[in-house]
Amino acid sequence: MMSERQRKFRENYKANISPFYNGLVHIGVMYAAGIAAIYYCATHLRGATWEWLLVIPVFLAGNFFEWGMHRYVMHRRIDIYGLRAIYQRHTREHHQYFTDNERTIDTTREFRIVFFPWRLLAVLGSAAAVFGYILSTIINPNAGYVLALTMVAQYLVYETFHYCCHVHENWFVRHMPFINTIRRHHTAHHNQGIMMKYNMNLSFPIADWFMDTTDIRRGFWGHLFNGYSEKYMKEELKPIVRRFQLDDSRVTLDGPTLTSEEEITINSALRA
């Protein structure tokens, strides 16, 4: 159930969304640009064969980059304008708007708090073009196009999965493999007691499994296909999770104020 603190934050946030903002235009432009970039790269491939294998290392690198950005930029205030803005938007806004008690949106105007702004896609597209060009000169043009389209596709997957984490419960998000896993995984991340250090992946929880920054103890395939199951949640985290579900009086815009005992528990569970 939504707390009074969360309700007031939501009301204030929505009241300050520009009247010119249109959620459908926001995601329409984003997906149109992303799909166009993928189409451009795909249609410029010439007899690609083994180059498609590059999807695997690029995907894995992207998964760990996603994890690193989430943990060390989105949840760590760095006094550099662009990085500070990311922290503000994520920790101080997104994590105040959504908690594991109330994680859903009701209108398309709330897309503003779910999807990244267009400038991120522009930055990612530029990076894909640069890295793609470099790889095309080192190996061949096909390799460069495969790298670029994989980077853009992975970003669209990220945004799609994140959206699925914040819609109301339905048959698709509950039963679709990977989607149901990341929905539970991300809901747990929104618990205000553990949000700063756990469940940093937002697409596939591969880096979280490898780095042991996950709230469950399972093998690799178990993590990927965990679905909604809470059976494997780390026992030592359960009291902290429950405490912050019931009482958010120790939550600030910069995260939870933990007791020394809670800090020790959270950090020891990361290494267990």
Task: Report on this structure.
The chain is mainly α. It has one domain. Helix content is about 60%, strand content about 0%. It is built from 13 helices and 2 strands. Strands 1-2 form a two-stranded antiparallel ribbon. Helix 3 crosses helix 7 (about 140-165) and helix 6 packs antiparallel against helix 7 (about 140-165). The model has no long low-confidence stretch (mean pLDDT about 95).
Write the layout of secondary structure elements.
Elements: H1 4-15, H2 23-43, H3 55-74, H4 81-97, H5 111-114, H6 118-138, H7 141-165, H8 171-175, H9 179-189, H10 206-211, H11 220-224, H12 238-246, E1 251-252, E2 255-256, H13 260-271
Antiparallel strand pairs: 1-2
Helix pairs in contact: 2-7, 3-7, 6-7, 7-9
Q: What's the number of helices?
A: 13
Total number of domains: 1
Global mean pLDDT: 95
Strand order across the biggest sheet? 1-2
For the record, give the distance between the C-alpha atoms at the N and C termini, rounded to a whole number.
31 Å
> Which outline best applies?
globular
Percent helix range: 55-70%
* Radius of gyration over C-alpha positions, nearest whole angstrom: 19 Å
Summarize the structure.
It contains 13 helices and two strands; from the N terminus they run H-H-H-H-H-H-H-H-H-H-H-H-E-E-H.
